[in-house]
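Collaborator request, handled under Task 6.
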Amino acid sequence: MIQLKTILIPTDFSECSDAAVKYGFALANAFGASVHLLNVVQDPYTMPWAADAFAAPVGDMLTDWEAQAKRRLVESVPDTSASPTVLTTRIGSPASEIVRYATQHPTDLIVLGTHGRGPLGHILLGSVAERVVRTAPCPVLTVRHPQREFVTETAVDPTTQVLCTPVP
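Structure tokens returned to the collaborator:
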């Protein structure tokens, strides 16, 4: 039997991440799990071009980005969610911070959006999802958008009886 108590859903607020948020909350509601919704604000000093691009301190800019991220995290929680939810922002490299968070807060599953870029985009931009899958301390479900949707907006009535017939 699968037991999910804690689901981590990292988001960058893209359409792909929105799909992952939808799937993650649906799984949390189905399993009675809590959700940790995480946004990592990319630290500009960790980028290769940062030394030349930022002559002035970026402390205020990072504080503003983090405040915006916190506001957007609140807006990302579905109104229909019954799952206990923890909202967190971090500053750093997204893949590293996601894995660090999952290690520090015992996580049963990470639900992560992926852009599904082609080989050239992957070489140029890298893949946070791939790095998380390779280094995460728990299983990772990647969600690509658009795809065949199996999460619906309507809730199933728990009093509904499902009839099962054996397949010959």
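The cover message to the collaborator said: "The chain has one domain: 6-144. The radius of gyration is 18 Å. Please let us know whether this matches your experimental observations."
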